[in-house]
Amino acid sequence: MTVADYKSHYRADAELIEDPSQLSSVRRNSERRRLQRIVRILRLRPEDRVLDLGCGSGWLAALCAARGANVTAADVSHAGVLAARQRYNEEVDAFAVADAYDVGLRSGSFEVVLLSEVVEHLENIPAVLEEARRLLKPGGRLLVSVPNRETIVEHLCIHCNQLTPANAHLHRFEAA
What we know:
- This protein has helices spanning 3-14, 25-42, 59-66, 78-88, 125-135; strands spanning 49-53, 70-75, 94-97, 110-116, 136-145, 154-156, 163-165.
- It is α/β, with parallel strands linked by helices.
- Strand 6 and strand 7 form a beta hairpin.
- 32% of the residues are buried.
- The model has no long low-confidence stretch (mean pLDDT 83).
């Protein structure tokens, strides 16, 4: 699958991203614990500028903002960003439609860049990590989280009638 294919698939799938409040209680609690752990690891300070790149529902961005950070939530999907803005407009400082390969924001703008459950979707991971590095201030922090030991299966895509990886995951990761 090429980057162009990824973008079209992701934009279509992003319209189906569930509102966190609509998740089953088991999944919602599991996801809440995962996101809270990320926020604890970050040890955010009120002056921190945070970019949640690939923000999906916007939930992680809102949790970071609740710690006093100045948060920008960005995603390649217009529909995803609109839904995140509708959910968390009061909590999150800014929203942007942005491509992880070329975010279009000023270099050295952020103390923290988050790629939470994002890189498994991307064709060229090193290019996205380089873009994240460009966006970080000197001494800034990058946090990447990915599914562990996931089995990637293909299914027939309802958008293009082609075999595509489930959940649009192109990569599998395993803790060392």
